[in-house]
Design brief:
Elements lengths: L75 E3 L5 E3 L18 H33 L9 H10 L9 H12 L5 H19 L13
Antiparallel strand pairs: 1-2
Helix pairs in contact: 1-2, 3-4
Length: 214
Amino acid sequence: MKCSICHYVSPPDGPAHNARTCPLKQTQCRRSLREDHPFFEAGQCVSAGCVHKQKCNTCGITGHLYGTQALTTNRWKFNNKGRLVRKQTTQPLCKNDFVCTLMTEESIRSMVDNSLNVSTAAAHDAHQRRVATSRLRANTNAECLDIDETVRIMEELGSEAAVLQKENKVGFKTLYKNAHLGAVAAGHLAASAVESSMDDATPPPRTETTRWTI
């Protein structure tokens, strides 16, 4: 699917990116338009956070932000249900598509590039999570996952498992790596490793100097 705003093409297995989710989707408030505007909507806007109440930090005019897009007939139309929708077009964004008169072509390119980068990063993260989840759901032996790799994948997935807690991770890894020695020996080694890690994490006691008054 191709976004009609920034023209980002979503991968088949990635997060949906379209005109409704695009970072550049902000447009004018229809109820703030002039009455003779083809897309004017009668009534008072009651949205507390509506863009028509915002002040542009570039031109200083209230009613839009720097990246607010104008509702023009080149980009918008009414569908057969009377709803205002974006037109499907291959034309890139230009200065005429924005409300702020101080918009530049360089700024537009920068905003589009940022949108593409954010969407690409989100798609990559989603892919990595799917791969990691698939590997964990499979047999860890078949996937050739050692304990360090398993813990790393669980952390990437945001797992809150007890074995990932700092105070438990050292003991768990030691226990696993020494399992071949038997439960008792491995347990002793794990306990020693935990005690050692706690000693390293505990700051030394502060020494106070006693002053004698003569």
